Predict the 3D structure of the following.
Amino acid sequence: AATNIRAIDKANYDKMHQDYSESVDALQRAIAVLKKQAHDRKQASFAQVSALKSLRLIPQEAKQTLDAFLQQSDEPEGLEVSAPEASGYEFQSGGVVEMLQKLHDKFLDERTALEKEEMNSKHAHEMLVQDLTAQIEQSTQDREEKSESKAKHLQAKADAEGDLQDTTTTKEADEKYLADLTATCEQKATDFESRQQLRAEELEAITKAIEIISSNSVQGNAEKHLPTLAQTASASLAQLRASGTERASQQRVAVYLRQQAKLHSSRVLSAVAERAAADPFAKVKKMIKDLI
């Protein structure tokens, strides 16, 4: 919009400046003609003076004065022209020159003022264009910075979401690992308790087997306690030295241990039972003591 207004103002200025320049030039020529004819009226040509009537800036009153002057200049000349008439003509010519000189000076001043106004208008327009250009550049820079900042924020958001996804995945994996580890620990604790219980039962069975072996009367105590699994060790191993009695006691111990191994699903008791049935009785007693 500002550019369009400036273009209109410039066109108006050019037209007005041309009018003033044409008027000033025409006035200068007309003044020169009138000053010359004051000395030699016969050689005077009033074409330059008459041309002033076609100029747009010449006031109507001045044009009427020029018409009257030109009509007087067209009257017959010669000896019949009296001296008073010649004096009147010269007086009227001087008045026209003075009028045209004033118009010339006026148009020069107005043209100068017009040129100053145009210069100021041009400068104001250039300043306006400069300001608008600076604003556009600043707005463009701000927009680019905002776009860059937005892109960085979007990238940061994407990175944060990626980190969150990684953290969530890691957390889920850690939770699963913890759950598996907890389950494993609980299973191992259960297995340990089961083994502890089994070991206690195995020790109890082996202790009772020792009680049978160490009884003063192996035959009677074995028959009394083997079926009920509740005898008390009170006799020394010296009482088992008799060969026949010792062998029978060894077999009863083996049977007892097999029963306990089956009852408690114990491989240790099963192995001891097998050794108790096959090995010499002294080795069986030593093996049982070593287990304890």
User: Anything to note?
Assistant: The helical segments are 2-37, 47-51, 60-73, 83-214, 218-225, 243-264, 267-278, 281-291. The radius of gyration is 71 Å.
